[in-house]
Design brief:
Bound molecules: arginine
Largest sheet: 4 strands, antiparallel
Distance between the termini: 35 Å
Number of strands: 13
Strand order of the largest sheet: 1-2-4-3
Strand content: 5-15%
Number of helices: 20
Structural class: alpha/beta
């Protein structure tokens, strides 16, 4: 546990304590709302709501509270707000305390919570598309933030590795033994994707092939050894190719996280039987379906969730119902998150409702669809290649890296080739991930490589630059040995008695909000809040650095305080970027 208390929390506690002295006992529990303000450091407005009940004017209560805020300066404003200014020593103490803490004063409010996060989930033998990119990047950021806040997180990559399409694919391979697709690493998916399209074309053109493919599905389901062998190969090779992409993207998912649809095969008959036995599912037109109250089509007709198809095959819904049982019973989840695009909202609503009614999802366990919007091209339509094809993820990454290489090479630098390559890679990935994460999750956004690699504005590359600039200042201070003696813990010493320049105070107060920001991100499951926060940190740092000389400060203590601010800024940026799954190179 960290014993660093955020300045904002200290202010809130002080206002609360004063309020409880001023108000009659029965109203004393009313919490004040404290937020950052342009007028002062903070504004508190807890008095408005209670004033009426206390039969006093809010301004009057405000003045009373202001007089009791030990150590803070407060002024009543407007209808009864309090404008609160915190003293400089409190600001410097907070900087020192965060810097001395290995976790920068971050708390672990989610300790003990078990969360399963279902994300990425591409399909075997099909090229990953930008929707899978979004799921991978957003899901990974949420996994990192929740873990950092203490939660026990299980990653689940629910890949599409089962279904009738495999009959067609395996039959095609059987009849075209010379088609090469194996062992191509990152290219495997493209080879398989091509194969898939060829098989689909033949399936549609040749009824005899279609029949042989259907027989192949039966063989696969019956566990025919040769058929299963090919299927296993297809899955294994696809998984390898996915892992290559995850590695390149810096996504945490690995081989241990695969939770393919096939894993649930054996459980599906039981899922359907139990739903039928309890009367939750009904037979309709030969299919087994469930209905959810309030879910209706355009004519007001109830919309079915199909758990077993007319032909006896199980649907996507049956598998998702089975995942819930496993996640509750085996992984002991308190919370299950599904990071899947917004178009599947209805599917999840009906799956969750069905699972709840079937008793597979206890009241205490929360399931949540975490939807996201569509990636658009610069033409405002869903992102496709010029010929209307799915854009290959690997190509996107190549494009971003090429664009950032041009930017970096145009600048003066003394990078050796290997370091340049590493920076290009880090910045290319940052460009793509940050562009995705910094947009409001549920909104569509336009994929625009040139904008993504911009070195100014709210981009990942800009933040990496800001971080590298801070690190460079600290390296220079080190080299010139100007930071003075370190504390026993190896931390830059802070003199809390020094006055704080307004830009120093502004930066310190933003750094102070890191913990609250992460808690917000975890609550709303919105990584863009962390992006916006880091951007604020970087711009506040620039304002501070423009106004306050650091290495050339004319007093040792002043310089040390400023270096401490630099250090805390650098560590905050690096930690924040890491929680977004973005690297923070030492030099850019
Ligand atoms: N494989 C699916 C697709 O590509 C996504 C699966 C999402 N996860 C889930 N549990 N349904 O659309």
């Amino acid at each position: 546990m960290s014993d660093v208390v955020a300045i904002k929390d200290q202010v809130e506690a002080a206002v609360q304590a004063a309020l409880s002295k001023v108000l009659p006992a029965e109203l004393a529990g009313t919490g004040p709302v404290v937020r950052r303000s342009d007028r002062a450091d903070f504004q508190a407005n807890g008095t408005l709501a209670v004033a009426k009940k206390a039969a006093r004017s809010p301004r009057d209560i405000g003045a009373d509270v202001a007089g009791r805020l030990a150590g803070l300066t407060a002024e009543v404003s407007g209808p009864g707000f309090l404008n609160i200014t915190v003293p400089d020593d409190l600001v410097w103490s907070a900087v020192a305390a965060r810097l001395a803490d290995a976790r920068l004063g971050l708390t672990t409010p989610r300790t003990g919570e078990r969360v399963v996060v279902d994300y990425s989930a591409p399909n075997v033998a099909k090229e990953m598309h930008v929707g899978h990119l979004r799921s991978s990047v957003i899901g990974d950021a949420l996994v990192r933030v929740l873990t950092h806040l203490g939660a026990d997180v299980t990653r689940q990559n629910h890949i599409g590795d089962w279904g009738t399409q495999f009959g067609m694919l395996i039959q095609y391979l059987d009849e075209h033994p010379r088609v090469s697709w194996k062992g191509r690493g990152a290219e495997t998916m493209s080879a398989l994707d091509g194969l898939y399209k060829a098989a689909r074309a033949e399936f549609e053109a040749d009824p005899a092939f279609a029949n042989r493919s259907r027989a192949r599905v039966v063989a696969l389901q019956a566990g025919d050894a040769a058929t299963l062998g090919v299927w296993r190969d297809l899955v294994a090779e696809s998984e390898k190719a996915f892992e290559v992409i995850y590695d390149r993207l810096g996504v945490l998912l690995d081989g241990g996280d695969f939770d393919g649809e096939s894993r649930y095969n054996d459980a599906l008959p039981d899922v359907v039987d139990e739903l039928l036995r309890t009367g939750i599912a009904t037979e309709s037109d030969g299919a087994v379906v469930t209905f959810t109250d309030g879910v209706t089509g355009p004519e007001g007709e109830p919309v079915p969730l199909i758990v077993r198809k007319k032909d006896g095959g199980f649907g996507y819904a049956a598998t998702d119902l089975a995942t819930i049982r496993l996640r509750v019973d085996h992984y002991k989840a308190d919370r299950i998150l599904y990071v899947v695009d917004a178009r599947q909202a209805l599917h999840f609503r009906m799956v969750f409702d069905t699972a709840r009614r079937a008793g597979w999802l206890p009241e205490a366990v929360q399931t949540q669809h975490v939807p996201f919007g569509t990636v658009l091209g610069t033409d405002g339509r869903p992102f496709k290649t010029r010929s209307g094809k799915t854009v290959r993820l690997a190509d996107l990454l190549d494009d971003a890296e090429a664009a950032i290489r041009t930017v970096l090479e145009a600048k003066e630098h003394d990078f050796a080739d290997a370091e340049l390559d590493a920076v290009v890679h880090a910045a290319g990935i940052a460009a793509i991930k940050y562009a995705d994460l910094s947009n409001t999750r549920t909104k569509d956004y336009v994929f625009d490589v040139d904008q993504m690699v911009a070195t100014t504005g709210n981009t990942g590359v800009y933040l990496q630059y800001a971080h590298a600039r801070v690190r460079s200042i600290l390296r220079k201070a080190d080299a010139a040995a100007v930071q003075g003696p370190m504390t026993a813990a190896g931390v830059i010493p802070v003199d809390v008695t020094l006055p704080a320049h307004p830009t120093e105070k502004a930066l310190a107060l933003i750094l102070d909000a890191f913990d609250a920001t992460l808690r917000d991100v975890a609550l709303a499951l919105e990584p863009h809040r962390l992006c916006g926060y880091l951007y604020d940190v970087a711009t506040a740092f620039t304002r501070f650095y423009d106004a306050c000389p650091v290495l050339k400060a004319d007093d040792d203590a002043v310089r040390a305080n400023r270096l401490a601010l630099c250090d805390l800024t650098g560590q905050t940026l690096a930690t924040g970027l890491d929680l977004l799954g973005i690297q923070a190179p030492e030099r850019m």
